[in-house]
DNA sequence: CGCTTTTGACCTGCGC
DNA sequence: GCGCAGGTCAAAAGCG
């Protein structure tokens, strides 16, 4: 845990992250190889815990794959920063912060937009997507960073139960 | 022709 | 109890 383990960090305690996310490195994701991300810790607890993982990319075309064994990412993306986010709500979801001009990032799945809402503290609307495949309880919300509009925060909720 | 997008309305939870 | 914010639904339209 020296130079390559800059990603590894301790789990931040549930302090007051009232309106600001705790910028801590995630211990749930590990950078393996060149373009592959895998869950370093127990993926089960990763889903069960009320912890969201925030990943900052600088590329738009990022293919994400949420499998049982972990999360696999493809695409020519250079990692900027990885941080864990603790939510107040106990819900299994991952938040990915991506630097992109477009909110619609192709992650290999087909999404159906079912809502758009304006966030109070942000000048940009939030988009609500859901997996087009029936039986897939996966939801996805996409909104821009209120501080940096050039960043797109994609929050996945649930797990895909179908291939691709 | 099927499916996605769109936009407003509706519902629910929480705070005051 | 009311109001606000966030989230979801649904009808109509648009596009491939």
Characterization of this structure:
This protein is mostly beta strands. The chain has a domain at 93-157: N-terminal domain of TfIIb (Single Sheet), CATH 2.20.25. It contains one helix and eleven strands, in the order E-E-H-E-E-E-E-E-E-E-E-E. The chain has one helix at residues 43-48; strands spanning 29-32, 36-39, 51-57, 63-66, 71-74, 79-86, 93-99, 111-118, 125-131, 139-144, 151-157. The strands form three sheets. A seven-stranded mixed β-sheet has the order 6-3-7-11-10-9-8. The radius of gyration is 15 Å and the shape is elongated. Mean pLDDT is 53; it is low at 1-91. The structure holds a DNA duplex (16 and 16 nucleotides).
Topology at a glance:
Layout lengths: L28 E4 L3 E4 L3 H6 L2 E7 L5 E4 L4 E4 L4 E8 L6 E7 L11 E8 L6 E7 L7 E6 L6 E7 L7
Parallel strand pairs: 3-7
Antiparallel strand pairs: 1-2, 3-6, 4-5, 7-11, 8-9, 9-10, 10-11
The chain binds a DNA duplex (16 and 16 nucleotides) through strand 8.
Structural key phrases:
single chain; 164 residues; mainly beta; N-terminal domain of TfIIb; 7-stranded mixed beta sheet; two-stranded antiparallel ribbon; 11 strands; disordered N terminus; DNA-binding
């Amino acid at each position: 845990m020296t130079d390559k383990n800059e990603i590894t960090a301790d789990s931040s305690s549930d302090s007051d992250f009232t309106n600001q996310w705790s910028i801590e490195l995630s211990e749930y994701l590990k950078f393996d190889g060149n373009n592959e991300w895998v869950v370093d810790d127990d993926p089960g607890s990763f889903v069960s815990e009320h912890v969201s993982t925030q990943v900052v990319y600088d590329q738009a075309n990022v293919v994400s794959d949420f499998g049982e064994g972990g999360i696999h990412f493809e695409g020519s993306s250079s990692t900027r920063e990885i941080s864990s986010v603790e939510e107040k709500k106990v819900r299994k979801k991952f938040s990915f912060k991506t630097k992109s001009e477009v909110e619609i990032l192709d992650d290999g799945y087909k999404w159906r937009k079912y809502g758009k809402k304006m966030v109070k503290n942000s000048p940009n609307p939030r988009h609500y997507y859901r997996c087009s495949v029936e039986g897939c309880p996966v939801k996805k919300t996409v909104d821009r960073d209120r501080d940096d509009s050039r960043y797109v925060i994609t929050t996945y909720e649930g797990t895909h139960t179908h291939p691709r």
